[in-house]
Amino acid sequence: MLEFVRANQIIARGHNIFWEDPQYTPEWVRNLTGFELQSAVKSRIQSLMSKYKDEFIHWDVSNEMLHFNFYEQSLGPNATLDFFETAHQSDPLATLFMNEFNVVETCDDINSTVDTYISRMRELKQGGVEMDGIGLEGHFTVPNPPLMRAVLDKLAMLRLPIWLTEVDISKKLDMETQAIYLEEVLREGFSHPSVNGIMLWTALHPYGCYQMCLTDTDFRNHPAGDVVDRVLKEWQTGVVEGETDERGSYSFYGFLGEYKVTVKYGNKTANSTFSVSRDGPLYDYSAYTECKAVPEEPLYNGGIIKAGRHSNSGSGVYTPSFVFHNLTANTIYCFSSWVKIKGADSTLIKASLTRDNTTFQSIGTVIAKRGCWSFLKGGFLLDSPSNLSFLYLQTSDGREINMKIASASLQPFTEQQWRTNQQYKINTERKRAVTIHVSDERGDRLQGARVKVDQISRDFPLGSAIAKTILGNFPYQNWFVERFNAAVFEDELKWYSTEPQPGKVNYTIPDQMLEFIRANQITARGHNIFWENPMFTPSWVRNLTGPELKSAVNSRIQSLMTQYKTEFIHWDVSNEMLHFDFYEQRLGPNATLQFFETAHQSDPLATLFMNEYNVVETCDDINSTVDTYISRMRELKQGGVSMDGIGLEGHFSIPNPPLIRAVLDKLATLQLPIWLTEVDISNKFDEQTQATYLETVLREGFSHPSVNGVMLWTALHPSGCYQMCLTDNNLHNLPAGDVVDKLLNEWQTGEEAGQTDDHGSYSFNGFLGEYKVMVSYGNRSANSTFSLCRGDETRHFSIQLEGI
């Protein structure tokens, strides 16, 4: 059998070394006890793994140990641990699995719940077992897709590859039903990022198969075989062809694997091959904001920190710490750890990096608590190599405290790996597969129909601030409309602009700006109702106290939100309240809560935001750490606030990509839409550097699944912009403007054109948004539109040509 596998370059799993079910244990083995049995099992491992060293990609060391325990009953509770140790010693490069049934198939089996499986694997790992993978047999009756996905999600927390190892559907069901259920299982497995492979349990015998066959004994497909053939075709890139663009480039989106490429130009031809594979590790978006009794497993199995769940502790100013040698340049390092303290109820802990005794960088923070474990997540980017680096945790104020850390991880990514991870998320979160079906008036599918598709609007809001300077400036208006689908008014809605003197409310300018917005179908954010910074509070308001101030703020909310009811997609109710507290100082600690309540009553459909700076930009600002922001939002929600979104201003100096992503991961646990609301790069940098950093920020925002929109803070004035301009005053692009144009082009589906296949279908992957489609066949044609919104399934759209 191995010769056949080798000859056809087929990979094979080794199944199994031991089956814990005594029914399937050799009779002579069942009669052994003590030393004889121990000798026999050791001989079994060494013989098998020596015989087939390097031949099998995996070994199922222990099969079905949650249901049966023949060896542990006979050899003691450490028998399985000894099996894994001996297997690892016999072949240190072997990939070792546990394998179990009824973990993913059902939750009715109390012996094999997902938590039981996780607990057993953790128990073995703590005992020192080298375990490399999780086997899920997959003998289904009626599959439960959400349960499957939930089980896979939980198992994925162990950061081990998962395989569905013995998939079939019960033979008590008819063949057609088997096929339907098989397709459900295969799609769940193939689409889950932690599933690394699927094996069907469909070995063909003269009498049939264990539960389900793909073919009869003459190799004619059963319905289940048709399903397998169909998904194999769907999950493989067909022939892709086209012409290079003006830059000599041709792009396509393909399944991972090996490719052959043929290129022709005039009378010249060249052939080559290339491979498309996962480039390095997948980024782990896991984040935790609750304090836990026990820390979770380390991300990436610890990465280049190999301590695993082992904990470090210390009470010095710079302990606990890690020492790293030879960290590489142009590498992104993601750091995470669980932290617990003694000696204080809670304190802000900061992770910092020093390298070669010269530079210092804060890379992440967490509010740690006594008696439970808190999760810190952050990272750093090295633009030059470091021979010797120290990563240490300390209190933000530098005082000593007893601190314990566990499950620490440092995972490196090359810049290309980081970009690949971004593109993976863009392809899965910002795009969707589409199949257009073309038929005649009788409903018969038409092969060879010409299909042309154009994207006419984008789903993802990417916009900019505007100021009154846009009014009457038609070249500026045209430039803006050609690029952006969202806007925010820079100053014109702020209290000092609409009511510079008490009672003299004037909405003339914002009304005119809103006319421009409406006329061009641009969405707009309402910024802001209150700014907690007294410097930007109207001078007459600063002089109010008590009932007068309360009356003024209520009037402000009601006037503004009545004037612009349903006009703005969001309202920033409270701006920069982590740094300033003008209203809470004067109206009491519940002032912000009352602002949100009054705003919600004034317009129940309004989407209400908080908005803050230095949450995502840096972790050096102790007033606005990500945990501080989360804590404040939870506090307000517990007080009954209707809060619908999280605003992150995004006024960056030097962006830190892993910190940006870590902050977004933590905020995503609140399950609220996140917007980057005022993005720019400091004007202390030259224009080219601003552009480079802007691209970094925009790619991080667009690729993160919890970011729902990005606004640039680039309103154009005769004097320039707040920090960064996209163009000069003649609307000629600056480098930052080139970046925006490049990304807008990259993140929009270009013209798609081709012919329907033999099923009358034409398929493509497109960015979310609105599309126009034109279909022609012979002398008949039809036009239509469709929308593409978020969804896991392929979007199917049908067009019928009349009179053929």
TrEMBL record:
One of its GO terms (biological process) is polysaccharide catabolic process. The keyword Hydrolase applies. PROSITE patterns: GH10_2. Keywords: Carbohydrate metabolism, Hydrolase, Polysaccharide degradation. Gene3D superfamilies: Galactose-binding domain-like (2.60.120.260), Glycosidases (3.20.20.80). Residues 1-231, 447-743 form the GH10 domain. The keyword Hydrolase applies. It comes from the Eukaryota. One of its GO terms (molecular function) is endo-1,4-beta-xylanase activity. SUPFAM superfamilies: (Trans)glycosidases, Galactose-binding domain-like. InterPro entries: Galactose-bd-like_sf, GH, GH10, GH10_dom. Pfam families: Glyco_hydro_10. Belongs to the glycosyl hydrolase 10 (cellulase F) family. This is GH10 domain-containing protein. It comes from Nyssa sinensis. The lineage of its organism: Eukaryota, Viridiplantae, Streptophyta, Embryophyta, Tracheophyta.
